[in-house]
Structure formats: C-alpha cells, structure tokens
Design a protein that fits this description.
Blueprint lengths: L2 H16 L4 H11 L7 H18 L1 H12 L6 H28 L5 H16 L16 H13 L7 H11 L4 H23 L2 H7 L1 H28 L6 H16 L3
Length: 263
C-alpha cells in the first residue's frame, strides 16, 4: 500500500466519518476498487484515529470541562454529568464489540452488504424529516438515552451503517436537544475508537501497511475530518440531517447493482 492510496482513503474517511454516510462502508468499497482482496482493519483504525483527533480538537472545550468537573466528582455539574453518560453509553458499545466482533467483521469482506446497509442508513437519517420542531428539548442525556445511543453505536460496526447517523438519530428520537444529540454522539465515539484501535493493533499489520503511509493517511483523515465535522454540526442545528438520505440510497443501490452485474 503506497502513500497516495492511504492519503486518498484518509480523505474518504475524513469526509464520511462525520457525515452520516458510513465511513466504514466507503472504505470497504474503495479498498475493493483499489484491489485489496481483504480489508485492512489496522488502516481503517488508523484513519479513525485521525478523525478522533478532529473530534478532540473540535470539542476541546467540552473535554477540558468534563475532565475538570469529573475530577472533583461533582456530577451535578453539566459536563461531569455528560462525562458520566459517555461512560454508561460505552458499556453496550463495548459489549457488542467484544461479543460480536468476529461475526460482524465478516461483513467487511462483503461489498453487497455495504450497499444494503447504506440503503438502511438512508432510511435511518430520513427519519429526522418526521421529527416535529420543538420535539427535542431534553438538555440532559439520562441513563436510557445513554444506553440506547451506545447500543446504536455498537451496531454501527456493520459496514454501511453510519455511526454518526445511527447515534444522532437515536438521540433525536429520544427527545435530546439537537446540539446535545450531536455532541454526545461524537464524545461517545472517543472511547469506542480507542478501544477499536487497541483491539486491531499488531506489528504484523503495521509492517504490511507501513508506518509512513499510515501517518499520511492519518493526517489526511484528521484535516478533512475537522472540516466535515464543522459542516455536520451546522446541518444538525438546522435540522437538515435528512439531506443525506438520497445520497445513501443512490450509492447503496449503485454498489448493489454493479456487484450483481459483475462490474
């Protein structure tokens, strides 16, 4: 794998990790186009670390306050409370990842499955069109929403299911304020990405891809991801998440039919 390929995949990851169109699905599809017979999961994880850096930069103020307030064990403070729900939401994500890691990873080798799940993602984000204005008024996450969003994040390991789309829509349907639903979704991604990288990391995979290509892919993913995150947060605030549904349907159906026809 050369530097240009990892930069290209880093750009794809940065664009699609935050926009609700499934980064894992796009990576599987484009790795297939580039001729990789097997998905390179370490590369996927490294690119996710790039977008993790983008999350940490964008939400650095929230992260500082979460650490500061949690350190004092004052969970009545809003950011300490938010940090607590991130921990609670990470529990179902971790359980799903550990128990179903092997069977779910088999989907990474099926491009048709990616297409089907992209169509499903389009259905998921289209649900936001039906959420009435003023419905999302909750300004605290709570245990039910934390567990539900964490479960949605765990299931989004299936390539083609957008992690950001599934988690944000889940939060919105449970009545969370738009800004809070998006913030909680991305803060919840931090421990999930760290855990995924820890599981996938190994020296053999590093030698197979190469440290330098990984670093270039990581950098491209971080830079493009930060720009995409700013765009998505703006669209969530305006209630325009459903704009991405037609794209998911079009790409999903394109992937399905081109593979059925053998292109």
């Amino acid at each position: 794998m050369n530097i240009f390929e990892t930069i290209f995949l880093g750009i794809i990851q940065g664009l699609t990790e935050f926009l609700p169109v499934s980064s894992s699905g796009h990576l599987v599809f484009f790795q297939n186009i580039l001729g990789f017979k097997e998905p390179e999961l370490l590369l996927d994880c490294s690119l996710h670390v790039g977008t993790l850096l983008a999350v940490c930069i964008y939400f650095k103020s929230d992260l500082k306050k979460i650490i500061s307030e949690t350190w004092r064990f004052d969970f009545k403070k809003p950011h300490a409370n938010l940090g607590l729900w991130v921990v609670v939401g990470s529990i179902p994500t971790g359980i799903i990842g550990l128990i179903f890691k092997t069977p779910l990873e088999r989907f990474f080798g099926s491009v048709i499955m990616v297409g089907l799940m992209l169509v499903a993602t389009g259905v998921i984000v289209s649900l936001t069109k039906m959420i009435p204005k003023g419905y999302g008024s909750r300004i605290q996450v709570g245990v039910l929403a934390a567990l539900a969003v964490g479960t949605a994040q765990g299931l989004a390991i299936i390539p083609g299911i957008s992690r950001s789309g599934a988690t944000i829509v889940c939060g919105l349907l449970l009545g969370l304020d738009r800004e809070l639903a998006a913030r909680f979704s991305f803060l919840l991604s931090i421990p999930a990405i760290i855990g995924a990288v820890a599981i996938q990391w190994n020296i053999e995979a590093l030698q197979r891809v190469g440290l330098v290509p990984l670093l270039f892919g990581f950098s491209a993913s971080a830079l493009v991801g930060l720009l995409a995150l700013k765009l998505l947060m703006s669209m969530v605030r305006r209630g325009h998440l459903y704009y991405f549904a037609p794209y998911c349907w079009a790409v999903g159906l394109f992937i399905i039919f081109t593979n059925i026809l053998g292109f």
